[in-house]
Amino acid sequence: MRVPGIISLLFLISGVFEFNVVYSYTLPIRGNKIITPLKNDIDPSDPQQVRISQVGQDRMRISWFTIYPTPATVQYGLTPSANSFSATGVTDSYRYMLYFSGPVHNVVIGPLQPNTVYYYRLGKCPKVYTLKTPPSQFPIKFAVIVSNFILNDIYAGDLGQTEYSKRTLQQISNSGYDMLLLDGDLSYADTVQEDWETFGRLIEPFASQRPWMVTTGDHDVEKIRILHRRSFTAYNTRWLMPFDESGSNSNQYYSFNIAGVHIIMLGSYTDFDSKSNQYKWLQMDLKNVNRKNTPWLVVMFHAPWYNSNTDHQGESQSVGMKASMEDLLYQARVDIIFSAHIHAYERFTRVYKEKSDKCGPLYITVGDAGNNNGYNPYFQDPPPDISYFRERSFGHGTLEVANESHALWTWIRNDDDKPVISDSLWFTSLSSDSNCKVHHL
């Protein structure tokens, strides 16, 4: 496909002026605290914490909670009556020490038309929701965040929700994204299960309209020695991802295709050595990628492999996972790798084995969408040669894939509650570079 002239010009400009930058600005003052309580007049069988996620090429999973049991059914269609089609799913629940969750409903609907608005109703509730399916071909726009946009008192285990975080969500919504990618640390519940519910109610107006695809972070583990020995209990029940469909045996790692992009979600806090199920699954998944159908290859995991911040250095989830899996991702010619964990923003050049490599992935840390209590302000000085842009700021990113060869990455800083483009880069897919042939281990 021929690249439009404006894309060629912007790509040339971004390539010419790319250099190492460290930017700093004054962090905004935390907004007034708000909460998203359960409404007093809610019917116990009414849906709450509604969200959607992609399952396969033309299906969506709709997930929601109720206080009392209710049918796991969805009526949907192309008109506000939402009664053209019907689907039935499953109901689950979980126990966490003394906490018992309400019913968790999951229903898969489809086949659905791409880039189309659908109306839907849940259970016996008359309320009508809307969702928009992503496009099936280029261009496509992703919003990329880590859940630190919720301002938390992580030390007290108290989920803080502020006017600032709500405005951040609104800015993301206003960007016109097709799908949201969230790189772990969803609720910062940190064992306080009611905070998962509060988080779910906060994001419902957004997550019920566009698919949210997520992976896990350290705050999602919630394993307590002796008291609760299972990891990811809440996450696995509340955030069911399409792992079965991608041949995975764990909700911690999976993959999916969307509009010419193959996206792989990995688990930093799940076994990752060469004998692990995750490693073997990744090896298989990469071998099955067809770069003619999905010329773009994107990977996400929580703990960054490359990091010039003074915090989170030398952690096994970063060092060990990198030692185990970097060769796999490099040989497969992964285009871009997103991580979080560091509460700051940093963009590296294409990297392999600590050095610049034109066939290596772009590494980007998007770790601070607004966590005011736990930001990581200190970078190593001077920056390493492979670190091209970094700043201690709040914000989110967008990845706009224009066609099979060109994409635009943009880091959008929240400045005085307004979105400000702070960093952007046009770059090309490795599948379009004849010098970067795919080699599988």
UniProtKB/TrEMBL annotation:
Class of the enzyme per the UniProt entry, highest EC level: hydrolase
Domain Calcineurin-like phosphoesterase: 151-345
Listed GO MF terms: acid phosphatase activity; metal ion binding
Cofactor(s), by name: Zn(2+); Fe cation
A Pfam family matched in the record: Pur_ac_phosph_N
Segments forming domain Purple acid phosphatase C-terminal: 360-417
Enzyme Commission number: 3.1.3.2
Residues covered by the Purple acid phosphatase N-terminal domain: 47-124
Transmembrane domains' residue ranges: none
Statement: the UniProt record of this protein carries the keyword Zinc: yes
Catalytic activity: a phosphate monoester + H2O = an alcohol + phosphate
UniProt keyword RNA-binding, yes or no: no
Keywords (A to Z) from UniProt: Glycoprotein, Hydrolase, Signal, Zinc
Family in the record: Belongs to the metallophosphoesterase superfamily. Purple acid phosphatase family.
Protein name: Purple acid phosphatase
Organism of this sequence: Lupinus luteus (European yellow lupine)
Higher taxonomy: Eukaryota, Viridiplantae, Streptophyta, Embryophyta, Tracheophyta
